[in-house]
């Protein structure tokens, strides 16, 4: 079984796997439109994590993990809790295209997608509003800023040819807000 990750799964799968491949799926755009009240946020301050939006001309880069034998049940149980129960994601099968030049046919992979029907779905917002929400959110897996920056770093280092305007615009908005927050905190401490 192959499992495609396009958010925190790219750097922290949390399950045993046999192999992994960087690549993409077609027909989807990655969006920070899913709320998170457990891993990267709280009930009072939900974080923003990614989901996929159907988009015929787009492709989303990430990592596909191959799980075999005893790894299958353990990984699916773990992901069901992490993504479906705690995250509100549904599963879908997609065609994964490995980055390798000598790659064979696309691989059928399982992917977790949060739809607008789930209670944690936040939907669209401006890059500035998403960045502002990310800055103030933290959950049991860490700060929401870490989530955004690790995802941006993954894209830069493993998929430098790929474009993800939504992701990098939010990162840029976050970086432009942070010096203001730092300055404000410094000013408060001095007074």
Automatic annotation (TrEMBL):
Compartment(s) of residence: Cytoplasm, Cytosol; Golgi apparatus, trans-Golgi network
Sorted alphabetically, the keyword list is: Apoptosis, Cytoplasm, Golgi apparatus, Lyase, Neurogenesis, Notch signaling pathway, Transferase, Unfolded protein response
Tell me which Gene Ontology terms the entry assigns under biological process: apoptotic process; glutathione catabolic process; nervous system development; Notch signaling pathway; response to unfolded protein
The main location is cytoplasm
Which catalysed reactions does the entry list for this protein?
A: glutathione = L-cysteinylglycine + 5-oxo-L-proline
Q: Name one Pfam family in it.
A: ChaC
Signal peptide bounds: none
Q: What is this protein called?
A: Gamma-glutamylcyclotransferase
Protein species of origin? Bombycilla garrulus
- What is the name of the gene encoding this protein? Chac1
């Amino acid at each position: 079984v192959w499992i495609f990750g396009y958010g925190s799964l790219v750097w922290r799968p949390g399950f045993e796997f046999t192999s992994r491949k960087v690549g993409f799926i077609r027909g989807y755009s990655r969006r920070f439109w899913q709320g998170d009240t457990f891993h990267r946020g709280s009930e009072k301050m939900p974080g923003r994590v990614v989901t996929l939006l159907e988009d015929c001309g787009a492709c989303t880069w990430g990592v596909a993990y191959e799980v075999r034998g005893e790894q299958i049940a353990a990984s699916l149980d773990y992901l069901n809790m992490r993504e479906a129960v705690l995250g509100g994601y549904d599963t879908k099968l997609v065609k994964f295209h490995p980055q390798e030049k000598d790659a064979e046919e696309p691989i059928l992979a399982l992917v977790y997608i949060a739809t607008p029907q789930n209670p944690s779905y936040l939907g669209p917002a401006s890059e500035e509003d998403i960045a502002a929400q990310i800055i103030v959110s933290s959950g049991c897996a860490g700060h929401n800023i870490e989530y955004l920056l690790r995802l941006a770093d993954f894209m830069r280092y493993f998929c430098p040819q790929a474009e993800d305007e939504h992701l990098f615009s939010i990162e840029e908005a976050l970086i432009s807000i942070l010096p203001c927050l730092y300055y404000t905190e410094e000013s408060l401490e001095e007074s």
